[in-house]
Amino acid sequence: MKIISRITLALAGLVMLSAPAFKKPTEWQSKFVTLNADGSLTYHADEQGNTLPDFSLVGYHQNDIPLPTLPVVKTVEAPAGGDAQQLIQDAIDEVAQRPADASGLRGAILLKRGTYTIAGKLYIKASGIVLRGEGDDKNGTRIVATGKGQRTLLNIEGAGNIKPAGAKVDITDGFVPVGAKSFHVASVNGLTVGERIILYRPSTANWIHDLRMDQIQERKGTKQWQAGEYDLHYERTITQIEGNQISIDNPVVMQMETKYGGGAIYPYTFDGRIKEVGIENICFESEYAGDTDEDHGWIAVGLSKVENAWVRNVTSRYFGYACVSTEDGSRNVTVIDCKCLDAKSVITGGRRYSFNNTGQLNLFMNCHAKDGRHDYVTGAKVCGPNVFYNSTAKNVHADAGPHHRWASGTLYDNIISDGEINVQDRQYMGSGHGWSGVTQILWNCTAKAAAVQKPWVSGTNYNIGFHGRQTEGSFKGRENGEWEGQNKDGLMPSSLYMAQYKARHLRSKN
User: Which of 37, 120, 226, 494 has its CA 20 to 30 A from that of 437?
Assistant: First the structure.
């Protein structure tokens, strides 16, 4: 793929440049996964059978095909003055009426270089549309949120929600470990290979109690976790059925135990979700009244209820919250080669989440953030796998990592930050953030410091090959997660995501 070749060449160049000045570090491998001579990987289970999960099937079409370059079907010239909202919206709506091809693609709208001022919002609500500019800097295509009002400037927005298309079928295994891609169910009647299912994990009262999330230290506004409010719904596809055992495409990222309600599966539909939408080569800016102004553009690009979509070569400046935010119902989205710069807001909670993910199976890659708070971050009950890879953050005012309320299955791979990366019990922070996540993996990351802790139950978190200082975290008395090779150069593979991706394609050829 083009993505792999670009990264490989870049890394090779760095090695050549550094060779005269630095001695090559001694290579070492993790006790959790080892890279074999043929490029395959061997995973080593813990005493419960948990392994590091496979993160390789995230992003646009599971990163199995390159991001497409659609032909231009509509060209828009930058106006000499005045608001351009209706001009661009009319172009989007016109292309939305075009018939889609067999791949669900309609075509690209080319916004010629220049400045387009937008007093309100733009919407893409149909599949197969690409909004493309002629550069993501001041000399390219600039879309500027003018005037007042917190808002998402460009909204990629489908409709509907996940709806069951059949009854829940219980998983009959007493324990399903992290990393598993198969398990037994009570019945396979009506299930078919290739069918999309929800892997369901309930939030029982005894699980919340053992996690101590009904015992969060109280302060004004603190909400204790309640049974049923933290049910998790992972989107998966059946790949094989043998007797009463089913196999799925993406792994289990949170262990399932009978004592905590076990798990179940059910087929589903998501009518109204859109797909094949892309945003490319655009600079988004927001007007603002001062460095702490909050009555202006908040998010440059927001995606909800969309799948197999992408945002590439996009820069945002002066927004209060994010460059790109993948919201609920977004899946298999690739965000690549994007920058979030110079946020304008009060520096406090609920602001400056530069690249924010609340969807699942999403990939953020080759991104950069400056002057953010939570630059690579997930929200509540985020279902993995999700990946942040090969990205940087400068002038950080808080930390990267899962932010609150139990994200599961996130890989932070080769993230470099001058702030912290934390995976911890956040207790009463916010309105009762509590345990921020499980099966959160930091791989070959560099930061000022990190706290990576193990929840009281239901798994652990990992920090492998981290360069930086270890901290106790915001609250004392929590057990550390799995730390390995702190401040030790030479971790192999240098990227877990890329190694898993290459290993998967190696298996497909054999």
Answer: 494
Indicate the angle between helix axes 2-18 and 496-509, nearest 10 degrees: 130
Give the H/E segment covering residue 507.
Answer: helix 496-509
Say if strands 368-370 and 339-341 run parallel, antiparallel, or are unpaired.
parallel
**At 137, which amino acid appears?**
D
Q: Alpha-carbon dihedral of residues 75, 81, 87, 91, nearest 10 degrees?
A: 10
Q: Are 424 and 451 in contact (CB under 8 A)?
A: yes
pLDDT in tens, 210-222: 999 999 998 988 9
pLDDT in tens, 427-485: 999 889 999 999 999 999 999 999 999 999 999 999 999 999 999 999 999 999 999 99
Local structure of residue 80 (DSSP, 8 states): S
Residue 78 in 3-state DSSP? coil
Rounded Cα gap, residues 58 and 360, in angstroms = 8
Domains, in order of start, for the chain: 59-157+275-361 (2.160.20.10), 163-269 (2.40.30)
DSSP 271-337: TT-EE--EEEEEEEEE--SSTT--SSEEEEEEEESEEEEEEEEEEEES-SSEEEEE-TT-EEEEEES
Residues 6+ apart with CB under 8 A from 19: none
CA angle 27, 32, 34 (to 5 degrees): 45
